[in-house]
Amino acid sequence: xxxxxxxxxxxxxxxxxxxxxxxxxxxxxxxxxxxxxxxxxxxxxxxxxxxxxxxxxxxxxxxxxxxxxxxxxxxxxxxxxxxxxxxxxxxxxxxxxxxxxxxxxxxxxxxxxxxxxxxxxxxxxxxxxxxxxxxxxxxxxxxxxxxxxxxxxxxxxxxxxxxxxxxxxxxxxxxxxxxxxxxxxxxxxxxxxxxxxxxxxxxxxxxxxxxxxxxxxxxxxxxxxxxxxxxxxxxxxxxxxxxxxxxxxxxxxxxxxxxxxxxxxxxxxxxxxxxxxxxxxxxxxxx
Length: 287
What we know:
The chain is of the alpha/beta class. It has helices spanning 4-11, 30-43, 60-64, 72-76, 82-85, 110-121, 139-147, 159-173, 193-211, 225-233, 237-240, 245-259, 269-286; strands spanning 17-23, 48-53, 86-88, 93-96, 128-135, 150-155, 182-190, 215-222. The protein has an eight-stranded mixed beta sheet, with helices on both faces. The protein is globular.
């Protein structure tokens, strides 16, 4: 029998960058940031797919202004192929809709896992896969965060948001270092960039001192009324108000991601995502 992992290695000819956007607390603007980052990455000429992994409140289609007919659960059940559940949007991003109540990747049986692997293999030709996770530290959230190569933890200056963001980082730190993604702090809804940098520095220091974990600062999106206006108008703010402060910061992030040189490794891309989704428990058991 041909080794499944070896088959994947042969089939995946180019690397896909896997980014997760997460938060310890709901209501911090996580999904809005993920949607607009995906759109700006696409505007830079990248091919982008966005996966709605917020299984408690899957809703990215509302922000994109589309109505998906199918969702990821239909791939897992075997009813459809991944290509059949991809939904195009007006902004050059394809989305994979999620549904509430879908099982954690770690809870899937072998047939479900194989179907998911076969589905994700078809994403090997895209440049970016953006995963919008749920908020908090549930098993579903941690599953998808650990499947990514980079995770952007969105935090606002509210004390509960800061505390919960640290809680998410702490949970991630409990896993073997080899499977923890690069963690980046992204401050949202704060009055100035300098205050955002100060807040991020405090989280970085706490992670370094108490968790022995290196966390980077990804940037600050200042409080901007245009973000809320875009949501109410059901047009992503970076499209509707391209010159507002929030749009400029998101565009800067997308440009940095596109410009930076990604060093490929054996654990990167979709193949690496599959491994992190389904082999992480073995790493945990080995410590």
